[in-house]
Amino acid sequence: MFSGLSAFPLTPMNESGIDEAAFVRLIERLADASVDSIGALGSTGSYAYLSRAERARVVKLAVEHAGNVPVIAGIGALRTSDVQALSDDAQKAGASAVLLAPMSYQQLSADEVFGLYETVTRSLSVPLCVYDNPGTTHFEFSSELYGRIAQLPNVRSIKIPGVPANPAAAKAHIESLRALIPSHVTLGVSGDASAAMGLNSGCEAWYSVIGGLFPKTALAITRAAQAGDMKAATRLSERLQPLWALFDQHGGSLRVVAAAAELQGVVEHPCLPLPLKALDGTGRQQLAVLLDELELA
Amino acid sequence: MFSGLSAFPLTPMNESGIDEAAFVRLIERLADASVDSIGALGSTGSYAYLSRAERARVVKLAVEHAGNVPVIAGIGALRTSDVQALSDDAQKAGASAVLLAPMSYQQLSADEVFGLYETVTRSLSVPLCVYDNPGTTHFEFSSELYGRIAQLPNVRSIKIPGVPANPAAAKAHIESLRALIPSHVTLGVSGDASAAMGLNSGCEAWYSVIGGLFPKTALAITRAAQAGDMKAATRLSERLQPLWALFDQHGGSLRVVAAAAELQGVVEHPCLPLPLKALDGTGRQQLAVLLDELELA
């Protein structure tokens, strides 16, 4: 479950609530493509913006429509007691694993973050993936903290941010992490632009945003890297460079992928919770041209 | 209401819920000291960590025990629809005004933030204070955006972060903001260390963390500045320099003020929502010595 392609779908919604039909369509695309796991309620799934009831419902729908694909459910929240409640809900809804980011309002200390994982892992009956996303949590994990948390019960994977762009530096980075982390804990790369580099450098998984909308495209990169064909993985990723550039220009992947899903007719407009808005204007026009050219699937 | 000392109390709590008796004691201290307003559910009041029901209860308690002092209630949340619900709740509970920070998980654009204030101010029947706290929201307001938001209905104050340490630069900064903001909208300084400089430079209000626990100490600084005695305001603030240094060393004021409230016996330990922890160890010992030396009240 914590290797290969983990696909992170949007949770399409509008001011009336979650668009359940559109969410189910996204999940069925992923099941049909046979991704290795589904990351429901990741950052791309807007977990931080949903109520407890909405989150329980999303996990239930994902599990019901994922076929044999395991569902990893995001349980992050600002307050430890809320994380514990969301963890219980996710397990009751049938999630195969949970994903926990140290969400913050007040900047967290390493000691506070360790305390969070210690408390939450103590009462888990499914595996946990540590979610390191400094762009949204504003918390920087040290390698040493990865190592300490990886020793906790039920921890089975760490979702790391992008790796260095230089191949030797990327490989050295992953090797240095591996030296601190037990072998039963996998490392998964995120930041789609550096996924091929991450997989080629020894990451076992790709926690993927584009995988949630274009699973076949993301699977082609993943399978090439898993087969040891580093050049093919790199080439397939470099082909998507104009998309990675749009992510960079527009504050990350979410607003771009939301607009892509709207443009492809997979979800309705709007699909993000206000105040967030999908990419519009010139950027959206550029994206429409790109989607035609790249033939993403 | 949006001038003078606005005191921001803690919301003391533990894993069982809010310590209502301790919260009421804090509010009564502020009413007894005759602060100019009370900022309930500011960042110091841990608004981001509380449930909707808890927040409604906190505003009700504050209003009930504030006597004639107006209560400004924090209504920030990640999702616009939640902010609207919290705004309704605060008004029903008797808040005299609301305070809104652009909380983020995904980094917000200026357009998204303007949209948030536009939506929320449209259905308000009390005044609103814009809450600019980049350390927790990770959003940087431009002066131009201040100006646009200040034109919206019901906007009456902007809570700005600290001002430059140099007196001429601080004065120039406030004057440049005043040129963009209508005169019916006050400017209030936050960041306790630069409060005296802010008031001396033309800010009409101090949105104060220490004012929530030590109202007399904060009032002395405020009244000196309001009376035009800039030197006295500066001297009274500089006396507290070791406290400002502790704020800097420990990631802001919250954990230090929480520990101060515990040390003074005003609240029980713990008083912050996990994963947050009040200052402990050597820092707490330094704080205890300081509290004795400074005779804060």
In summary, what is this structure?
The structure is a homodimer of 297-residue chains. Chain A has 297 residues and is of the alpha/beta class.
Descriptive keywords:
homodimer; 297 residues; alpha/beta; TIM Barrel; 8-stranded parallel barrel; two-stranded antiparallel sheet; 46% helix; globular; Aldolase_TIM (chains A, B); Dihydrodipicolinate synthase family protein (chains A, B); DapA-like (chains A, B); lyase (chains A, B)
Plain-language structure description:
Chains A, B: This is Dihydrodipicolinate synthase family protein. Chains A, B: It comes from Microbulbifer celer. Chains A, B: Pfam families: DHDPS (PF00701). The structure is a homodimer of 297-residue chains. Chain A has helices spanning 20-33, 52-65, 80-92, 110-122, 134-137, 143-150, 167-178, 195-200, 215-226, 230-238, 241-249, 254-263, 281-294, and strands at residues 4-7, 13-14, 17-18, 37-40, 71-74, 97-100, 128-131, 155-160, 186-189, 205-208. In chain A, α3 (80-92) links the parallel β5 (71-74) and β6 (97-100). With 297 residues, the first copy, chain A, is of the alpha/beta class. Chain A has a single domain (4-233), classed as TIM Barrel (Alpha-Beta Barrel), CATH 3.20.20.70. In chain A, the strands form 2 sheets. Chain A has an 8-stranded parallel beta barrel with strand order 1-4-5-6-7-8-9-10, surrounded by 4 helices. A two-stranded antiparallel sheet of chain A has the order 2-3. In chain A, α1 (20-33) runs parallel beside α2, α9 (215-226) packs antiparallel against α10 and α12 (254-263) crosses α13 (281-294). The radius of gyration of chain A is 18 Å and the shape is globular. Chain A is built from 13 helices and 10 strands. The model of chain A has no long low-confidence stretch (mean pLDDT 97).
